[in-house]
């Protein structure tokens, strides 16, 4: 529920009749902790132990020393909300953190975290950043505390990624892969070709790429571009595995104005690559 720039907090409703009716809303964050918390779509996760986790990023107004309006801290503080009673009550995990650059001197802008349970019992968190890549952190105590966030192997613009576990045990990632397209990091290239509002200084939210990991996110294979429109705005992916395929719901084209649902057969994802599988990035 977004009430203002100072009050954006997740709430939970539960349905026991397949969404015909819903319980009263439960505030996940009490009034005393109100601030601007970002929780992406499709980010609520239930761990194997039953704990429900909401990964959020907190943004705040920093009070002015002279009583003025103050300033907006958009760099973000990462926190997790946990519930051990099926979403009836909530509390914060023990650890919140700001993300720093490798040299430790500069703060990294972080947004829109997500979490996934690994096979060894740890929880992995991936985080959107403005560093041309996703960052990653790990928890060994069910999202109470976290390791220092460091650069991950998913290169991307300032755009969220989605990571899910498939029924066969593999992980799948869907994101805007800039690893093979360094020209999208070149402000001169972006300014020359695309003079629309969807051009951010650190790159386009395109292509929309999917890949598989068999080693818990250390490496990625079966990499495919699902969409490659250079003027695309492809992001905020929700992913559901149904009947041998992935259903992807996401924003598509013209900033956040349109939505799209795409069905991706797993047989295509795991099959041998073909030239016509890959979207032609520079075809007119």
Write a structural description.
- This protein is 4% helix and 39% strand.
- It has two helices and 20 strands.
- The chain is globular and about 60 Å long.
- It has 284 residues and is mainly beta.
- Strands 5, 6, 7, 8 and 9 form a five-stranded antiparallel beta sheet that branches. Strands 10-11-12-13 form a four-stranded antiparallel beta sheet, with no helix packed on it.
Helix and strand content put the structural class at mainly beta
Count of discrete alpha- or pi-helical segments spanning 4 or more residues: 2
Shape: globular
**Rounded Rg:** 19 Å
Amount of helix: under 10%
Order of helices and strands: EEEEEEEEEEEEEEEHEEEEEH
* Main β sheet profile: 5 strands, antiparallel
Kindly report how far apart the N and C termini lie.
42 Å
Give the rounded overall mean pLDDT.
Answer: 87
Low-confidence stretches: 193-201, 277-284
Q: Total number of β-strand segments?
A: 20
Query: Into which percentage range does the β-strand content fall?
Result: 35-45%
Summarize this, please?
The chain is mostly beta strands and 284 residues long.
Key features?
single chain, four-stranded antiparallel sheet, 284 residues, 4% helix, mainly beta, disordered C terminus, 20 strands, five-stranded antiparallel sheet
Give the arrangement of secondary structure elements.
Blueprint lengths: L1 E3 L2 E2 L2 E2 L13 E2 L8 E3 L6 E2 L5 E11 L8 E13 L7 E2 L17 E8 L5 E7 L3 E7 L10 E6 L6 E4 L5 E5 L11 H7 L14 E6 L7 E7 L7 E8 L2 E7 L7 E7 H5 L14
Antiparallel strand pairs: 1-2, 3-4, 5-7, 6-7, 7-8, 8-9, 10-11, 11-12, 12-13, 14-15, 15-16, 16-17, 18-19, 19-20
């Amino acid at each position: 529920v977004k009430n203002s720039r100072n009050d954006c907090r997740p709430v939970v409703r539960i349905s026991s009749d397949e969404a015909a009716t819903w319980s009263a809303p439960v505030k996940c964050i009490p009034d005393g902790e109100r601030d601007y918390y970002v929780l992406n779509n499709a980010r609520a996760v239930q761990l194997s132990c039953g704990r429900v986790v909401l990964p959020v990023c907190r943004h705040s107004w920093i009070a002015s020393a002279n009583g003025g309006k103050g300033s907006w801290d958009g760099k973000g503080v990462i926190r997790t909300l946990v519930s051990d009673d099926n979403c009836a009550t909530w509390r914060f995990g023990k650890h919140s953190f700001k993300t720093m650059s490798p040299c430790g001197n500069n703060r990294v802008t972080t947004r829109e975290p997500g979490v996934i349970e690994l096979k060894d019992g740890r929880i992995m968190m991936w985080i959107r950043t403005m560093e041309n890549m996703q960052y990653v952190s790990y928890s060994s105590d069910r999202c109470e505390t976290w390791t220092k966030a460091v650069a991950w192997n998913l290169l991307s613009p300032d755009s969220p990624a989605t990571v899910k576990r498939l029924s066969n045990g593999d992980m799948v990632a869907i994101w805007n892969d800039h690893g093979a397209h360094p020209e999208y990091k070149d402000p001169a290239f972006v300014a020359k070709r695309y003079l629309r509002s969807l051009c951010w200084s650190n790159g386009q939210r395109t292509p929309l790429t999917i890949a598989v990991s068999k080693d818990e996110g250390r490496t990625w294979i079966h990499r495919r571009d699902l969409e490659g429109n250079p003027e695309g705005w492809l992001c905020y992916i929700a992913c559901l595995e149904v009947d041998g395929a992935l259903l992807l719901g996401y924003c598509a084209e013209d900033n956040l104005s349109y939505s799209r649902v795409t069905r991706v057969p797993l047989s295509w994802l795991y099959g041998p690559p073909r030239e016509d599988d890959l979207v032609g990035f520079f075809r007119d």
